[in-house]
Amino acid sequence: MSLIHALVAQGSTILAEHQAGKRDFSQATQTILSKIPPNNSKLTYVWEQYLFHYISEGGFTYLVMADDSAGRRMPFTFLGELQRKFLSSPSASTSSTSLPPHALQSTLGPIISQLVYTYNTSPPTDDISRAQSELAQVKDIMVQNVEQILSRGERIELLVDKTDTMASQATAFRRGARTVRRQMWWKNKRVLGLGILVALVILWMIMAQFCGAALRCGAK
Description:
Blueprint: E1 3-10, E2 13-19, H1 26-35, E3 41-47, E4 50-57, E5 60-67, H2 73-87, H3 90-93, H4 105-121, H5 125-137, E6 141-145, H6 152-158, H7 160-211
Parallel strand pairs: 3-6
Antiparallel strand pairs: 1-2, 1-5, 3-4, 4-5
Helix pairs in contact: 2-4, 2-5
């Protein structure tokens, strides 16, 4: 799966989106949206093995999150087509004023979903070839690492998903460690008990040689 999460936003407000993967990247995308400058721009942010590509134009941001294996040509072709479809839809005429979050989800969400599916299964080669020549001429497309634009607190927020996963793994490890310790404790107790029993038997055998089996050493 190349394209994972795509959306259309007005400023930092997400108007419609579609997520193809199971992992939730909404916090990361929201953080990146808040860092996008208001001027028209095209940019790629790098985070872990993922790339966040976006086109910001006319007050709207078209963003797609993709695997690094997808490169940049195909995701930017996708964004260009998403932008054209949005601007040609009736939703664009109603978006001149500020809208609440996900105000266009019912109308624009299915369009984003269909585009993501198309580009993940059989992306149009002609559009990609055209985008390749366009990207070669664009000078304002840059690549930045997400870590460079985040404050310490925001880095911590983006690591919440990772921390939760590690915490669950640590909990499972602790449970397993407790079980092993409990098993070893009982094993040591059994060995100790057996050692005491053997020592008592040996002591009885030594004393029985001098005092008899009944251990009546004082009897005449």
